[in-house]
Design a protein that fits this description.
about 170 residues; 6 helices; mainly alpha; about 85% helix; elongated; about 0% strand
């Protein structure tokens, strides 16, 4: 099992992160934390490889989610939005809010579990400026992966140092 995780762990975590960023509810956060912890405890996963793969996967997943929202989101809102209480007026308000505060929303949403799944699709649906989305998404993905990955890695090292004497 350790060899499997060492060989494929980074790619499994990257796949979870990318698919979650597209909008599929997967436990990417838990996978990242577990892989970071595992990287500190063994020599099979290198933390910087995990971080690089995670950042790339998050950015690619968010871009795909953005373009899915840009292509299909408005049609789905027009067709089914009224069932969710989204009138044309409320949809216009959402578009205005994304035009004004979209970058902040995308950045903050990366750190919130449910919004992380929907942020890219919502940004595309609400016609957020492409360059603003790319910048906010890339900086948020980098910060999220670095914070969670390095925190789990540090915790794994501290755990190992405390557990070794015991």
């Amino acid at each position: 099992m350790a060899e499997f995780v060492a060989n494929y762990g980074i790619w499994v975590v990257a796949a979870f992160i990318a698919l979650e960023s597209v909008g599929i509810p997967l436990p990417a956060e838990a996978a990242l934390i577990a892989a970071g912890f595992f990287a500190a405890r063994t020599h099979g996963i290198h933390i910087w490889d995990l971080i690089a793969a995670g950042i790339i996967a998050a950015i690619v997943g968010e871009i795909v989610g953005f373009w899915i929202g840009r292509r299909y989101g408005h049609q789905l809102l027009a067709r089914h939005g009224s069932r969710l209480g989204l009138t044309p007026g409320r949809i216009r308000i959402g578009q205005w809010l994304f035009a004004r505060y979209g970058g902040r929303f995308v950045f903050i949403a990366r750190f919130l579990p449910i919004l992380r799944n929907m942020a890219a699709v919502l940004a595309g649906t609400n016609a957020m400026a492409q360059h603003s989305f790319y910048f906010a998404s890339a900086t948020a993905a980098s910060a999220w992966i670095l914070c969670y990955g390095l925190a789990a890695y540090s915790f794994g090292e501290a755990f190992g140092n405390l557990a070794s004497p015991a």
